[in-house]
Amino acid sequence: MTGRRAVPAEKRSRHPTEVRRRQVVRAALELISEQGIAGVSARDIARHAGVSPGTITYHFSGVREIVAEAIALEIDEYYIPLMAQLRTLAPREALSRLVDALFTPETERHWRMWFEYWLAGLHDDDFVDRQAGRYAAWQGQIRDIIVAGQDAGLFTSGDAAEVAVRFVALTDGLALQWLRGVPPLTGEQARDHLRRFAADELGA
Predict the structure, then answer these.
(1) What pLDDT is stored for residue 15 in this prediction?
(2) How far apart are CA 150 and CA 152, in angstroms?
(3) Is the alpha carbon torsion for 193, 197, 203, 204 positive or negative?
(4) Are 170 and 194 in contact (CB under 8 A)?
(5) What is the pLDDT of residue 74?
(6) Residues 97 and 85 sit within 8 Å (Cβ to Cβ)
(7) Between the CA of residue 129 and those of 7, 10, 42, 121, 188, what are the distances in Å?
(8) Residues 103 and 114 sit within 8 Å (Cβ to Cβ)
């Protein structure tokens, strides 16, 4: 019996570090979306990514780092295109489009993973710092929409920064209630709560 001849080292295809890292992170993201953060191990990720366990330990400090990057990827892939689109719209339309985009069948996975991330990082300072940074960016983007609306005379009241903080807090609370279904809350009802909030706070 003849075996397959080994490929000389100089002719083997090697993936650049960032490509390999992204491959692993993408595999972790798929696993987390299927079974949650708690059920994902380094060996599971390696198997799903089609790499050796040694590749995981070479490129990452541990599962927590992979999970953090996977959640960051999920968030970026959702928010970056959305916010880029909103920047092309007039403030009132941008705020309306933002509300419409938050509670849909397409965003259910995003919210589940966001809360998984919170749970996993509850006692991890690095996770908390990452979350704080993302909240600051998210609130800043909403504040900018509000300020633009106020400057244009479309929104008539409210401190933009404070309204943005309350908007994000209400959104998180509604998302958790929407996902858990206790008490029952539909996506349209959640969006209606945000519209009423905007009307009360901004006259929008």
Answers:
(1) 61
(2) 5
(3) negative
(4) yes
(5) 87
(6) yes
(7) 45, 42, 23, 10, 32
(8) no
DSSP per-residue string spanning 94-147: HHHHHHHHHSSGGGHHHHHHHHHHHHHTTT-HHHHHHHHHHHHHHHHHHHHHHH
Question: What are the backbone dihedrals phi and psi of residue 22, each rounded to the nearest 5 degrees, phi first?
Answer: -65, -35
Those residues whose C-beta lies under 8 Å from the C-beta of residue 75, and which sit 6 or more positions away, are 110, 114, 134
Where does residue 49 rank: exposed (0-12), middle (13-18), buried (19+ CB within 10 A)? Answer: buried
CA gap 65, 63 in Å, rounded? 5
Collect all residues with Cβ–Cβ distance below 8 Å to 56 and sequence separation of at least 6: 24, 42, 45, 46, 66
- 183: preceding bond cis by omega (within 30 degrees): yes
Q: Could you give the angle at the alpha carbon of 65 between the alpha carbons of 62 and 69, nearest 5°?
A: 145
Q: Which residue has the tokens 């929409």?
A: 145
Provide block-wise average pLDDT over 10 residues at a time, the chain (204 residues): 40 67 94 85 94 93 88 86 93 96 89 80 73 88 96 91 96 94 94 96 86
Cα–Cα dist 30/33, whole Å: 5
Query: Which pLDDT score, from 0 to 100, does residue 169 have?
Result: 96
143 contacts: CB under 8 Å, gap ≥ 6: 160, 161, 163, 164
